[in-house]
């Protein structure tokens, strides 16, 4: 009882071994036009969601559900999936329509309405693509956005007057 030596516990820097399985999840690398330092996030509105109001943000958004109001994602892409029903005006960099949109769409770059897409409203973009089988009712304006470009009227000089001698009044002799 008194002659027992204390047990020494060996300390090690080696990690403890566990019988638990190691779960490895793959890491997805999303390329943002070659810029891998900033991963792009996507927001999703699921099929069972119904949103009334304004949606705004800086991430891409995929909509599977219903939205009523305004969608503003000016620096990224809005994708209306085939199950989506949108009653809203949409403002984005790129808009892809696979579902139903009732409202105006304004895109900085392009609007693509797929074969399953249905748009009732006006569209404004540099490029508007209506694929075979798509439905569209409204007006299309394809404009080239050129910021800081002076208008043609401010660049024009006043019209040249024909060279005519000055008019002098005639006197009677």
Protein architecture, described:
With 173 residues, this protein is mostly beta strands. The chain has a domain of 102 residues. Helices cover 2% and strands 41% of the residues. Strands 1, 2, 3, 4, 5, 6, 7, 8, 9, 10, 11 and 12 form a 12-stranded parallel sheet that branches. The longest helix has 4 residues. The radius of gyration is 33 Å and the shape is elongated. About 18% of the residues have low confidence.
Class inferred from helices and paired strands: mainly beta
Element order, helices and strands?
Answer: EEEEEEEEEEEEH
First and last CA, distance: 155 Å
Instruction: Please tally the helical runs, counting DSSP H or I stretches of 4 or more residues.
Output: 1
Would you identify the regions where 5 or more consecutive residues have pLDDT less than 50? Answer: 22-37, 146-161
Q: Find the count of extended strands (DSSP E, 2+ residues).
A: 12
